[in-house]
Fold this protein.
Amino acid sequence: MAAAVVDAHTHLFGPDVVRGREALLGREPWFGALYANPKAALAGETDLLAAMDEAGVETAVACGFPWSDPGRCRAENDVLAEASQRGGGRVAWLASVSPKHGPGAAQEAARAFALGASGLGELNADGQGFDLADPAALAPVALACIDADRPLLLHASEPLGHAYPGKGTATPDKLLAFVGAFPDLRVVLAHWGGGLPFYELMPEVAAACANVWYDTAASTYLYRPAVFRAVLDVVGPAKVLWGSDYPVLGMERFLRRSRDEAGVRADEADALFGGNARRVYALPERAGVPS
Ligand SMILES: [Zn+2]
């Protein structure tokens, strides 16, 4: 029997954001860039749980959004904490903080960890106006994670290929500068790290990325299914977390395609589809759960 699946990268919003979408478009420019299009879905708690049931996903790691406004971060962190409590362990969550606010961001991180957040993320350099290559700008947030032994999930961008809303400029060179500045910080890089795994063929890059993991969020918008095999062969099956980016991708369909079309070997599947996420985000095992 396969182990219970964890979707390591999903997003959910509180009812204030879903209902107040229009008003937020102008106040939060990055939110506006992604969600001005009314077809861009905003999922709430019940939507996420329904998608998990449909896909047979046991646990989801839910992120909010990389808000600029620290008050919005705080309010949506409370939404995530409550959803997690109601979910009885099925929904883990990552807190959003705005690194531009320095010590205030670190305080919010500590508050969120006390409320049960499994880490921070998905933070976004372009969306939140911070420079990944400037360690001083990120030190309060990075140190808050290291102190609490929690990981940080960062959005990552491909330096080439097609443009899309939300792509940004968090490219492998900047990501490597960031992880090099904080070697004790566990970092998960979304969207296959913008291509950074391929540079782990360089021994010095692999050494610098010893505390880095990659997730598969939004994979089908970016790469052919062969990306799974290519990255697993370079960085090994312990460093890749399966995540959909739900609701960007449909969870059930992406899970099916990841299992059937991506060339994942049977001996890699438990790690990729849940074990790695449980370890990196320190998620509790749930006893007695059928899978
Ligand atoms: Zn992202």
Notes: The chain has one domain: 5-280.
